[in-house]
Amino acid sequence: MIKQVDKHTAQLTGFDLFQYIKKRFNKTDEEAIKSMEKNNQDTSFYIEYKQAKEEKEKRLERQRKNLVNGYSLTDARVIAVSKSADVTPLEAVELIIDEDWICLSDEEADERAEEYILDSVWAFNPSFLSYHTDTDEEVFKLLQDKCEGSNDAILRMIKDKDYFVEDAINSDGRGHFISFYDGEEHEQYINNDFYYCYRIN
């Protein structure tokens, strides 16, 4: 609060004076309050100010304790992995860092599965490839002898790549193309959002 003394000067009081003393004379909270008390200034605000400051410091300390290698133990993805792997949030962070588990949004999981599918069409069942290309199964049996080397050729033969990806996911599930450990997808609903976790190693 500012109290008008005359038309040229103004006197600070209360919390404003407290802030001014701290900044102008580089004083701590306690030193500023003692200075105000010595000069019979209003310090009634200080109890509420101190409580608010202590609460803020406690909140920041909790946040610091919850950070492990840049991951918050309260992060939705950490919690999702924790539930999926049946471990503590701290252990979940370690699993994420070591890339033993990953947690994805629905869109991210679709993208990752699609990328893997299109990079490995050569490994699909010849009958499945035949259905999506109108080409005889025997052709794919011969092409697959070249393994990855035949992927681009087979990819060009697929009539509708989007439908191919959709059909592959509907047949085997996204976990089959993302989780190299057990092919499982773990769905978790946290903070009004769905997360999908996969064990990689």
What layout of secondary structure does this protein have?
Blueprint lengths: L1 E3 L5 E3 L1 H12 L3 H10 L7 H20 L1 E2 L2 E2 L3 H10 L3 H9 L3 E4 L1 H14 L6 H8 L3 H7 L7 H7 L3 H12 L1 H5 L7 E5 L2 E7 L2
Antiparallel strand pairs: 1-2, 3-4, 5-7, 6-7
Helix pairs in contact: 1-2, 4-5, 6-10, 7-8
Keywords, separated by commas or semicolons:
two-stranded antiparallel ribbon; 57% helix; 11 helices; three-stranded antiparallel β-sheet; 201 residues; 2 domains; alpha+beta; rod-shaped
The oligomeric state is single chain
User: In which range does the helix fraction lie?
Assistant: 55-70%
**N-C termini distance:** 62 Å
Secondary-structure element string: EEHHHEEHHEHHHHHHEE
Number of helices: 11
Query: Which outline best applies?
Result: rod-shaped
Biggest sheet overview: 3 strands, antiparallel
Low-confidence segments, ≥5 residues, pLDDT <50? 1-9
Strand residue percentage: 5-15%
The count of strands amounts to: 7
Radius of gyration: 31 Å
- How many domains? The number is 2
Helix- and strand-based class?
Answer: alpha+beta
- Read across the widest sheet, the strand sequence of neighbours is 5-7-6
What average pLDDT do the residues reach? 88
Task: Give an overview in words.
Helix 4 packs across helix 5 and helix 7 crosses helix 8. The chain is of the alpha+beta class and about 200 residues long. Strand 6 and strand 7 form a beta hairpin. It folds into 2 domains: about 60 residues, no CATH class; about 130 residues, no CATH class. The chain is about 55% helix and about 15% strand. The N terminus is likely disordered.
